[in-house]
Amino acid sequence: MASTTPAAGLPTRQLGTTDMEITRVGFGAWAIGGSDWSFGWGPQDDTDSVRAIRHAVGRGINWIDTAAVYGLGHSEEVVAEALLDIPASERPYVFTKCGLVWDESDRAAPPRRVGDPASLRREVEDSLRRLRVERIDLYQMHWPANDGTPLEEYWQALVKLRKEGKVRAVGLSNHSAEQLAVAEAISHVDTLQPPFSAIARDVASDELPWCHAHGTGVIVYSPMQSGLLTGKFTAERAAALPEDDWRSRSPNYTGDGLRRNLALADALRPVADRHGVSVASVAVAWTLAWPGVTGAIVGARSPEQVDGWLAAASLELTQADLKEIADAITATGAGSGPVMPG
């Protein structure tokens, strides 16, 4: 159903052992879910969001990452609206996630992490309906369940959905290497979706090497650390974040954490200038330089934001670039985890 050859000729990589070849960057649909939920990004214009998705697809991006919980269903609905008039042969792959259940009577409450197979089956039907598709290309467990359901049980439920054809591939998001090994013993883990950026680097220690060794595709999220590594974020902007933007409550956006992160973003400018690209593109390309990483999820709320990071889809950083960035990470003290791809 989805096109495997991007119209703009962007390079692709095989997603793990699946039959999907994906562009090195994909459209992230977290922010377009809007506000009125506990991890919203503030109010969004759905018209701009639709334009952003269509622009990304038109520029050659061939996959979209969303989740049922983004906007409590709204992100999936916006994605469906954006793809409605695109011919089936040109549509991008659509990836979504399950396992976070919300209470419609208290939308501001944090969603519950639920692994009960009956709940997962209801969730996949709801996502199919909201996305207006007959099959989801990649379905991932958003977080480890904390409702008492063992990992083995919810992973078997996802594998069953794959066997039934309701989903094309299945994966885990925000799971550890140890948890991946438990799931792999039952059935192959097609993908892992972890947080990864030049600030949040911890998964480079264990999870990325595990996936590289086991043929599990990796699509990382927040490669620009939710705006901090775009080169456009400032201390003034951080201070002005509204209360309904989750970033206003994060230590990465205040005090010493913010100072170190912005210093690292500034240190990426010389690399960006040498390649004639944006700081945002360098931040994304840095994640793609690590062995095991298949693609990076990059958010946008307008066509202009898409154009701001699209160069990352083709950018190859040199060893000298990576050494310069590693030195900057060490000098600024930003984040944690390994600093140089090995």
Description:
- This protein is an alpha/beta fold and 342 residues long.
- The protein contains twelve helices and twelve strands.
- It has a single domain, classed as TIM Barrel.
- Mean pLDDT is 92; it is low at 1-7.
- The strands form three sheets. An eight-stranded parallel beta barrel has the order 3-4-5-8-9-10-11-12, surrounded by six helices. A two-stranded antiparallel ribbon has the order 1-2. A two-stranded antiparallel ribbon has the order 6-7.
- 36% of the residues lie in helices and 14% in strands.
Brief rundown of the structure:
This protein is α/β, with parallel strands linked by helices and 342 residues long.
Going by helix content, strand content and strand pairing, the class is alpha/beta
Number of domains: 1
Strand content: 5-15%
Strand order of the largest sheet: 3-4-5-8-9-10-11-12
The CATH topology is given as TIM Barrel
**What's the CATH class, please?**
Alpha Beta
Number of β-strand runs? 12
Uncertain residue segments:
1-7
Mean pLDDT: 92
Number of helices: 12
Radius of gyration: 19 Å
The CATH superfamily name is NADP-dependent oxidoreductase domain
CATH architecture: Alpha-Beta Barrel
Written as H for each helix and E for each strand, in order along the chain, the element string is EEEHEHEEEHEHEHEHEHHHHEHH
> Overall 3D geometry?
globular
Fraction of helical residues: 25-40%
First-last Cα distance: 37 Å
Could you describe the largest sheet, including whether it forms a barrel? 8 strands, parallel, barrel
